[in-house]
Amino acid sequence: MVGPLVLSRALDANKADHGSLGVLGGDTGTVGAAFLSARAALMTGTGRVYVVRPSLADGYVLDPLVPELMVIEASQYRDKPIDTWVAGPGLGMSSLARTYFEAILRVDRALVIDADGLNLLSIDAALASFCRERTAPTILTPHPGEAARLLGLKASDIQAHRSS
Q: DSSP E strands: which ranges in 47-149?
Protein backbone atom coordinates (compact mmCIF):
# COMPACT_ATOMS: atom_id res chain seq x y z
CA MET A 1 0.00 0.00 0.00
CA VAL A 2 1.21 3.47 -0.84
CA GLY A 3 0.53 6.24 1.64
CA PRO A 4 0.05 9.90 0.90
CA LEU A 5 3.04 11.90 -0.24
CA VAL A 6 4.12 14.34 2.43
CA LEU A 7 6.66 16.91 1.33
CA SER A 8 9.20 18.10 3.82
CA ARG A 9 9.80 21.81 3.49
CA ALA A 10 11.68 24.37 5.53
CA LEU A 11 9.45 26.45 7.78
CA ASP A 12 10.44 29.62 5.94
CA ALA A 13 10.07 28.13 2.43
CA ASN A 14 7.79 29.59 -0.18
CA LYS A 15 6.77 28.52 -3.67
CA ALA A 16 9.65 30.40 -5.30
CA ASP A 17 12.06 28.03 -3.51
CA HIS A 18 10.68 24.98 -5.32
CA GLY A 19 11.00 25.68 -9.02
CA SER A 20 8.59 26.60 -11.73
CA LEU A 21 7.08 24.60 -14.56
CA GLY A 22 5.37 25.68 -17.75
CA VAL A 23 2.89 23.28 -19.32
CA LEU A 24 2.45 24.26 -22.98
CA GLY A 25 -0.89 22.83 -24.04
CA GLY A 26 -4.59 23.07 -23.47
CA ASP A 27 -5.91 24.15 -26.83
CA THR A 28 -9.65 24.81 -27.15
CA GLY A 29 -11.49 21.59 -26.35
CA THR A 30 -8.49 19.86 -24.76
CA VAL A 31 -7.64 22.13 -21.84
CA GLY A 32 -8.19 19.23 -19.42
CA ALA A 33 -5.00 17.50 -20.58
CA ALA A 34 -2.90 20.53 -19.66
CA PHE A 35 -4.73 20.95 -16.35
CA LEU A 36 -4.09 17.30 -15.42
CA SER A 37 -0.37 17.65 -16.13
CA ALA A 38 -0.17 20.90 -14.21
CA ARG A 39 -2.06 19.45 -11.23
CA ALA A 40 0.36 16.52 -11.08
CA ALA A 41 3.30 18.94 -11.00
CA LEU A 42 1.81 20.83 -8.06
CA MET A 43 1.01 17.64 -6.18
CA THR A 44 4.58 16.41 -6.54
CA GLY A 45 6.13 19.57 -5.17
CA THR A 46 6.67 22.11 -7.94
CA GLY A 47 6.46 25.60 -6.49
CA ARG A 48 4.90 27.52 -9.39
CA VAL A 49 3.00 25.95 -12.25
CA TYR A 50 1.89 27.83 -15.33
CA VAL A 51 -0.59 26.42 -17.84
CA VAL A 52 0.61 28.11 -21.01
CA ARG A 53 -2.20 27.98 -23.57
CA PRO A 54 -2.03 28.92 -27.26
CA SER A 55 -5.13 31.07 -26.79
CA LEU A 56 -7.46 32.04 -23.96
CA ALA A 57 -10.32 32.91 -26.31
CA ASP A 58 -12.49 30.08 -24.94
CA GLY A 59 -12.43 31.66 -21.47
CA TYR A 60 -10.65 28.84 -19.60
CA VAL A 61 -8.37 31.01 -17.49
CA LEU A 62 -8.83 29.11 -14.22
CA ASP A 63 -8.70 25.48 -13.20
CA PRO A 64 -11.76 25.28 -10.92
CA LEU A 65 -10.32 22.31 -8.99
CA VAL A 66 -6.85 23.79 -8.51
CA PRO A 67 -7.17 27.58 -8.68
CA GLU A 68 -3.53 28.09 -7.67
CA LEU A 69 -2.47 27.04 -11.18
CA MET A 70 -1.59 30.11 -13.19
CA VAL A 71 -3.16 30.09 -16.65
CA ILE A 72 -1.57 32.40 -19.20
CA GLU A 73 -1.66 32.89 -22.94
CA ALA A 74 1.46 31.54 -24.65
CA SER A 75 2.39 35.00 -25.90
CA GLN A 76 3.20 35.88 -22.25
CA TYR A 77 5.50 32.98 -21.33
CA ARG A 78 8.74 34.97 -21.76
CA ASP A 79 7.70 37.19 -18.84
CA LYS A 80 7.50 34.24 -16.42
CA PRO A 81 10.32 32.58 -14.43
CA ILE A 82 9.87 29.10 -15.91
CA ASP A 83 12.67 26.63 -15.09
CA THR A 84 11.33 23.50 -16.79
CA TRP A 85 8.79 22.76 -19.52
CA VAL A 86 6.26 20.12 -20.45
CA ALA A 87 5.05 20.57 -24.02
CA GLY A 88 2.17 18.81 -25.70
CA PRO A 89 -0.76 17.85 -23.43
CA GLY A 90 -3.78 18.96 -25.42
CA LEU A 91 -1.64 21.37 -27.45
CA GLY A 92 -3.34 20.61 -30.74
CA MET A 93 -1.87 20.60 -34.23
CA SER A 94 -2.66 24.12 -35.40
CA SER A 95 -0.11 26.52 -36.87
CA LEU A 96 -0.31 28.52 -33.62
CA ALA A 97 0.47 25.38 -31.59
CA ARG A 98 3.40 24.66 -33.88
CA THR A 99 4.72 28.22 -33.49
CA TYR A 100 4.75 28.04 -29.69
CA PHE A 101 6.09 24.50 -29.65
CA GLU A 102 9.02 25.58 -31.82
CA ALA A 103 9.65 28.50 -29.46
CA ILE A 104 9.80 26.15 -26.47
CA LEU A 105 12.11 23.76 -28.34
CA ARG A 106 14.51 26.69 -28.67
CA VAL A 107 14.42 27.56 -24.94
CA ASP A 108 17.50 26.34 -23.06
CA ARG A 109 15.55 24.62 -20.28
CA ALA A 110 14.75 21.01 -19.44
CA LEU A 111 11.79 19.80 -21.50
CA VAL A 112 9.41 16.85 -21.44
CA ILE A 113 7.62 16.32 -24.76
CA ASP A 114 4.31 14.49 -24.64
CA ALA A 115 1.12 13.98 -26.64
CA ASP A 116 0.65 16.60 -29.37
CA GLY A 117 4.27 17.70 -29.00
CA LEU A 118 5.25 14.21 -30.16
CA ASN A 119 2.65 14.33 -32.92
CA LEU A 120 4.05 17.64 -34.17
CA LEU A 121 7.58 16.17 -34.16
CA SER A 122 6.38 13.20 -36.20
CA ILE A 123 4.99 15.34 -39.04
CA ASP A 124 7.40 18.28 -39.09
CA ALA A 125 11.04 17.61 -40.02
CA ALA A 126 12.13 21.10 -38.97
CA LEU A 127 10.72 20.62 -35.47
CA ALA A 128 12.37 17.21 -35.23
CA SER A 129 15.66 18.82 -36.21
CA PHE A 130 15.29 21.53 -33.55
CA CYS A 131 14.59 18.78 -31.02
CA ARG A 132 17.72 16.80 -32.00
CA GLU A 133 19.84 19.96 -31.72
CA ARG A 134 18.74 20.75 -28.16
CA THR A 135 21.48 20.70 -25.55
CA ALA A 136 19.19 21.01 -22.50
CA PRO A 137 17.79 17.76 -21.05
CA THR A 138 14.91 16.54 -23.21
CA ILE A 139 12.62 13.59 -22.53
CA LEU A 140 10.09 12.13 -24.97
CA THR A 141 7.19 10.13 -23.49
CA PRO A 142 5.47 8.33 -26.38
CA HIS A 143 2.82 5.66 -26.04
CA PRO A 144 3.04 2.94 -28.74
CA GLY A 145 1.02 4.89 -31.30
CA GLU A 146 3.11 8.03 -30.87
CA ALA A 147 6.34 6.00 -30.95
CA ALA A 148 5.19 4.38 -34.18
CA ARG A 149 4.50 7.77 -35.79
CA LEU A 150 7.90 9.09 -34.66
CA LEU A 151 9.74 6.04 -36.02
CA GLY A 152 7.67 5.51 -39.18
CA LEU A 153 6.46 2.10 -37.99
CA LYS A 154 3.18 0.48 -37.02
CA ALA A 155 2.06 0.43 -33.39
CA SER A 156 2.06 -3.37 -33.56
CA ASP A 157 5.79 -3.26 -34.42
CA ILE A 158 6.42 -1.14 -31.32
CA GLN A 159 4.38 -3.48 -29.15
CA ALA A 160 6.20 -6.55 -30.48
CA HIS A 161 9.60 -5.07 -29.59
CA ARG A 162 8.99 -3.18 -26.34
CA SER A 163 12.05 -4.62 -24.61
CA SER A 164 14.42 -3.87 -27.51
A: 48-53, 70-73, 84-87, 110-113, 138-140
3-state secondary structure of 112: strand
Give yes or no for a contact between 30 and 90, defined as CB atoms under 8 angstroms apart: yes
Total residue length of the chain: 164
- Bridge pairing between strands 70-73 and 138-140: unpaired
pTM above 0.70, yes or no: yes
Buried b (16+ CB within 10 A) or exposed e, 43-67: eeebbbbbbbbbbbeeebeebeeee
99-153 residue pLDDT tens: 999 999 999 999 999 999 999 999 999 999 999 999 999 999 999 999 999 999 9
* Cβ(101)–Cβ(26) below 8 Å: no
Cα–Cα distance between 103 and 92 in angstroms, integer?
Answer: 15
C-alpha to C-alpha distance for 42 and 72, rounded to whole angstroms: 16
CB-based contacts of 56-62 (< 8 A; 24+ apart in sequence): 57/28, 58/28, 58/29, 58/31, 60/26, 60/31
Q: Are 23 and 86 in contact (CB under 8 A)?
A: yes
Backbone angles phi, psi at 98, to 5 degrees: -60, -45
